[in-house]
């Protein structure tokens, strides 16, 4: 029955991934209903903490976007890139990683792609190198950003194991950043030089290479509200990190063994709600745009996935606890690397770090794996590049006017594969090693 129910989950994930968007979360609800009404499994509780963390973080990030704060961050990134355009292959991915880390969303990289493309061509550098690495870096940072939906889910799952946000960040930040730097360095000569690339030369000869009309941030001064909203949001991120690292700063009630410390999920929810409120007061965004922007839409999708997929996964585990402990645990404990492989496969199918976290981490916890193995394998959820149909891959290909960022004749030999695999391998390995020393 375990394998049959697991097959049902994989079938639902497959069809959910094919249809995409909200359908994936809805099929998670279908899975819960099937387990309850067909297999008579007692349902687990929906992941309320995870959903509320995502909601609070997304409200603050969406308010930041509506107030012009994200555009201000893009302006700062553009100035940083233009300071050393010759080293754009290394600098661009690091900046992409940093801005996703701070904002919790990889969407910020889209605004940087035309700038990367223009600077690369002007400096005779193959645009594929900074663009492909930056796309991967912007996604890799999601698993170390304290305000991303995937990390929010991870916090909720790992808290009962005694692993807090501070520990997760201490593992994930160096692991992902080292992966980004290693990939950028190893692919600094990837592909033909721009002057020798036949596709670029063809487009140049046909007059197709034109200087892109990128929006010059210098011509539009950032408003005081945009600057204030960025400061408020970043202060909120800093407070969350500090509160996660130093539990004594959080309020507590009771004495001795009965002492209850304010949980990190509640802490994050309160800080982000306060940040959203302050951004609205001082950033003065158009209120109506907060719930209509792309960031809130992405967050709402993450909540639907949390509601359906995580609920389905935990219900399945509750019904198969005895079988898992008797048969599956020994297999995975003997070969813990298989967890990272499975996470990578699920992430490649769902093209979502958040959805994969919601599906796989509860299963990994049920297998009674050490927390450091779970966190190390979690780095493999950044696999949405494997099949180059994700929106960020398609955007990168379209923004490369030189035609060097490609899909690949055999689909899988696309521009993002090598940087992506390097990032995944390095991040998983480093996170596992650091985690084994810290936990």
TrEMBL record:
Specify the protein's topology with respect to the membrane: Multi-pass membrane protein
Record-level Gene Ontology MF annotations: C4-dicarboxylate transmembrane transporter activity
The reply on keyword Manganese is: no
| Primary residence | membrane
Cellular localisation: Cell inner membrane
* A Pfam family this chain is assigned to: DcuA_DcuB
Residue ranges crossing the lipid bilayer per the database entry: 21-39, 51-76, 88-110, 163-186, 228-246, 266-283, 295-317, 337-365, 417-438
Q: What is one cellular component GO term in this UniProt entry?
A: plasma membrane
**Sorted UniProt keywords:** Cell inner membrane, Cell membrane, Membrane, Transmembrane, Transmembrane helix, Transport
Q: Which domain of life is it from?
A: Bacteria
In which family does this protein belong, per the annotation?
Belongs to the DcuA/DcuB transporter (TC 2.A.13.1) family.
- Name of the protein in question: C4-dicarboxylate ABC transporter
Record the organism. Paenibacillus campinasensis
